[in-house]
Amino acid sequence: MNSQRIAQMRISPLHIQQGLFLLLALLVTLIAIQQFQRWTQASDAALVKQQIIHSSVSYRAVSAPMVHSNAQSIRPVDGLVSVSEAAPQEKWVF
């Protein structure tokens, strides 16, 4: 029954060959686009990673002496202070 429908549609082997070639061309195009997107995302990610590493290295270089000087200025507390008596200290982080 299916063969009768195919015979009525008059699909020649040339049509089948052209359709398969079209599908192959579409598949190759989609794979090429996908690989191009992966390549651009990988280069963007590498650039962002490089910027993060650069900024974290410069942050460590600037903040390292500050951490060392703060560690030396810590002194023991003489008495206990309640939460209501202690004034909050403002800290600026850049």
**Mean pLDDT over the residues:** 75
The main β sheet shows up as: none
Strand content: under 5%
Q: Give me the count of strands.
A: 0
Please mark out the parts with pLDDT under 50 across 5 or more consecutive residues, or reply none: none
Number of helices: 2
What is the distance, rounded to the nearest whole angstrom, between the alpha carbons of the first and last residues? Answer: 78 Å
Which sequence of SSEs, written as H and E, runs from N to C? HH
Q: Structural class, judged by helices and strands?
A: mainly alpha
Radius of gyration: 35 Å
List keywords for this structure.
94 residues, 2 helices, rod-shaped, single chain, mainly alpha
Topology:
Blueprint: H1 2-9, H2 13-72
Structure, described:
This protein has 94 residues and is mainly α. The chain contains 2 helices and no strands. The model has no long low-confidence stretch (mean pLDDT 75).
How would you briefly describe this protein structure?
The chain is built from 2 helices and no strands. It has helices spanning 2-9, 13-72. The protein is rod-shaped, with a radius of gyration of 35 Å.
